[in-house]
């Protein structure tokens, strides 16, 4: 019986911490892989319902393919020689390019810093408010042997679309 009480207390603590910020996010992605240009052409619709305990004045999207861009943080941290070894046939950089971005049908102010896109909504997002983000983008798939790459007709594709960052207790 004592073990059961410990388990119940642990589950109650865990559920209170894990489910503290259960934002509701859904993605609808349409994409086409061009094997001649080694690019993905995509459109994305993100529906986000904020469950944050406060009004949000910014949203962030991860742009993971930008870690393969020349001069990226990953390239600087790895050093030129190590970074270039990711490319079996010499440097062939990759990226995620944003063609269009709207928030609830309007073009918001946004900025990109390496793999992070920061959106500044015209109107802050209140708790329980749902917003729609639409993104038109192009991903250049590098000739690389990593999570995102192509080599000899094979494609390794993960972390390829703009993904909304998690809001947690730290922000």
How far apart lie the N and C ends?
39 Å
Average predicted confidence as pLDDT: 85
Shape: elongated
Count of DSSP strands: 10
CATH homologous group name: tricorn interacting facor f3 domain
With strands numbered from the N-terminus, the spatial order across the biggest sheet is: 1-2-7-4
Give Rg in angstroms. 20 Å
Question: Structural class of the secondary structure composition?
Answer: alpha+beta
- Secondary-structure element string: HEEEHHEEEEEEE
Number of DSSP helices?
A: 3
Uncertain runs: 1-20
The biggest sheet amounts to: 4 strands, antiparallel
**What number of structural domains do the residues give?**
1
- Identify the CATH class: Mainly Beta
**Quaternary state of the chains:** single chain
CATH level 3 topology: Immunoglobulin-like
CATH architecture: Sandwich
Q: Indicate the percent of residues in helices.
A: 10-25%
Strand content bin: 35-45%
Descriptors:
single chain; 171 residues; alpha+beta; Immunoglobulin-like; 4-stranded antiparallel beta sheet; 3 helices; 10 strands; 16% helix; disordered N terminus
Kindly describe this structure.
The chain has 171 residues and is of the alpha+beta class. It has a single domain, classed as Sandwich (Immunoglobulin-like). It is built from 3 helices and 10 strands. The strands form 3 sheets. It has a 4-stranded antiparallel sheet, with no helix packed on it. The chain has a 4-stranded antiparallel sheet with strand order 5-6-3-10, with no helix packed on it. A hairpin with a 2-residue loop joins strand 5 and strand 6. It starts with a helix and ends in a 7-residue tail after the last strand. The N terminus is likely disordered.
